[in-house]
# Entry
Amino acid sequence: MEYQNSKIPEGINVSSEHPLKNFIYLLLGVSGAIIAVLLVLFYTIGFIAKWVPFEAEVKWAESISASFNESGDDTQNGLLDALGLPTTDKNLDGLDEQYTLRVQKITLYLQDLANKLALAQELPEPITITVHYIDQPLVNAFATLGGHVFIYQGLIDAVESENGLAMVIAHEIAHVKNRHPIVALSRGLGLGVILSLVTGVGGDSLSTSLAGHVNLLTSLAFSRGQETESDIEAYNTLLKYYGHGLGATELFSQLVKAGQETSLPEILNSHPLSQKRIERLEKLGQSTITDCSYASFNCSLTPLPEFLLND
# Structure
């Protein structure tokens, strides 16, 4: 009996589907896996960062400041230089004595108010708040590593009462309390290092990586969830300190009036829109009970001291 191999069919080694289709499926699968891993690492790094001792966070802030400040003994201006933000004149000794005293008096007032609000917010030990006053017209305030909170004169001018100012300070204290600055910076640096290892691009030193992510020190890096969390905690702080929440929406109302709202929808913004924040705080106010007995004798706004007002 004679056997013969059967004839090989035509096109047996040729796929009926376009080769790019399989490539796209493979690319999407690999990309999805990488994104999933990065998301897991992103939230894992953030969770671990909250357990970093506050003392270590303080030293980290000092090292950042020193790397951007030649003298190494000026934390305020070192951090501001790192952020690329304007500062008050570095040498107050060379300025008019009256101006120097004014800056010192405002700083002491802001620090004292922050200490009282931190106590009302039950800020846990060993976390502390260090307030820095910046005599610049920026409507800005933010919290950084190590419990450093920066308040600009422009923001003081934008609020109408001490209550409105206290809301902003309590908001920044809440960021520090919940360790939002170190979480934001750790996530940015961690993912930057991971991407460098994966892609093989940007294998620079840690200091270079830190400089590239230094913008994460500001509140601009905080998520909408973190901002909302801090808003709620700040409002509750006002309730405990003043006995009511009047003035909580002053800054947001001013931003809306000044047209400083972005045209992007809220879902595309890292910060909740000011109008949305006003609505949420007003709704929160309707559901809370006021007790005007702690820092004031009645439910009224506490005026700002005259020396805070810009000449």
Observations:
- Confidence is low (pLDDT under 50) at residues 206-220, 262-270.
- Strands lie at 130-134, 141-143, 148-152.
- Residues 19-49 form the longest helix (31 residues).
- The CA atoms of residues 159 and 269 lie 24 Å apart.
